[in-house]
Write a structure and sequence with these properties.
By secondary structure, this protein is α/β, with parallel strands linked by helices. The chain has two domains: 9-233, Alpha-Beta Barrel (TIM Barrel); 244-348, no CATH class. It has ten helices and 18 strands. Strand 4, helix 4 (87-93) and strand 5 form a beta-alpha-beta unit. It is an enzyme of class 5 (isomerase). Pfam families: Ala_racemase_N.
Length: 360
Amino acid sequence: MNAPRLEIDLSKVYDNTRILVELLGDRGISVTGMTKASLGCPEIAEALIRAGVSAIGDSRIENIQNMRHHLVPASMILTRSPMLSQVEEIVKYADVSFNTELEVIRKLSAAAGEANQVHGIVLMVELGDLREGIMPEDMLDVVREVIRIPNIVLKGIGANLACRNGVSPDGTNMSELSALANLIETTFNLTLEIVSGGSSANLNWALSGAGTGRINDLRLGESILLGREPLHRQAIDGLHADAITLVAEVIESKVKPSQPWGEIAQNAFGEKLTFLDRGRIPQAILAIGHQDTDPHGLQPPAGIDILGASSDHLIVESNLPVGSEITFQLNYSALARAMTSPFIARVMKHQGGPIPEPVA
């Protein structure tokens, strides 16, 4: 079998999704299954749909287009603010897009009009993480303009936390989002279908037993694919942390000094490293590196330590022979980069058996 490769156990992806859909469903919250880390993989999207997600979300219109071409049967949401240069594609392939700029919404309106369509939008609110979002005090003015724009329907509001600066979702910021939803509805006599509280980072809050207010949707990716919550990278009870693994092949195996010799300058990635002299140690090199994944996000099996990496080499302390394979677990950064590498194959597995048909 080719290496390096991502081994994707669709049965485990399905199990993780089903469990989270059920847990959040008991709290009145639906799940938008995020496929951006999997590069819009149609097989993963199908597993999410069969496990009961309400929609598929992705940050790249190209991924949504790919899933449409593979006839993935779901409502599609573009979760990154649209580029003006892509409004025609967005209207064509996405049912809903997340927005913060009136200029972009007007261009979406024009594109929707030309296509004789209506495009749904969710307005994103800034709640402190300082990524995308309309300031809360400006939201009523923006809504007032949006509801006048033809070919556009306001589906709801949403927020994003913990991605740029690590601001945690909690009762305070989620209550602010709920209050804003109520204010919009009473001010303009309308109903917001979606109040999207955030991502997998919201799980600790959503499942804590505290009131969830108006929040009725979360966008889940990392928790489904890796079985972990993003705030502290802790495994979630009952979920598979190995639904996706990365397998790499040993291309050199030798005993070498643990400390380099010669004048030490920066390495290829601008780092100036320090070393502990442990004498001669077994060193194996695998055919994978920074160009393929985030080496800092790889977790090797017990007894194997990662010593370093270059563009296309990963060095580990091991005496495994040439041709051997090592299976790594991944964090989100390593997964996202590995999925985008053209040098890493994808292998779909069903170790837990066939995936059931979509839930009712």
